Amino acid sequence: MPTQSPMDLALSLAEQAAVDGEAPVGAVVMEGDTVLAAERNSMKALGDPTAHAEMLAIRAALAKRGTGRLDGCDLYVTLEPCAMCAGAIAHTRLRRVYFGAEDTKAGAVENGIRLFAQPTCHHAPEVIGGIGAARSEAMLQAFFRQLRR
User: Fold this and answer.
1) Mean pLDDT, contiguous 10-residue spans, the chain (149 residues)
2) Is 39 a catalytic residue?
3) Which residue in 46, 72, 82, 87 has the most C-beta neighbors within 10 A?
């Protein structure tokens, strides 16, 4: 039986988040073939507006690694990171960011402020968008459509 890809794991976590009434976003930090952390949005559950999937995954990976950096590691996230998460990505020096759906409203990687393209950004990871985008977009649209009812 084939192993689940990091993005498939992130998408599964996003589905779990939606079931629990959280915006469906999942994130996975990989070091080579090893999952360092796998988290989902938990802002409502934790009563913490910073509990984005990326932030939780980054914190867990840092704790597991025992360092203040994630150089050589990759982040898989179902939605383009916001400014807060992009800042954390730069500060922890993640090597690569793979994301699913673009976020034209709050994204800060390929949309909005494009943090990694700013001359003041001290570390810019390689960014690869569109991985699992259709599934992520469908989940997000369904979640927000349900909220508007």
Assistant:
1) 84 98 98 97 98 98 96 98 98 98 97 97 97 96 89
2) no
3) 82
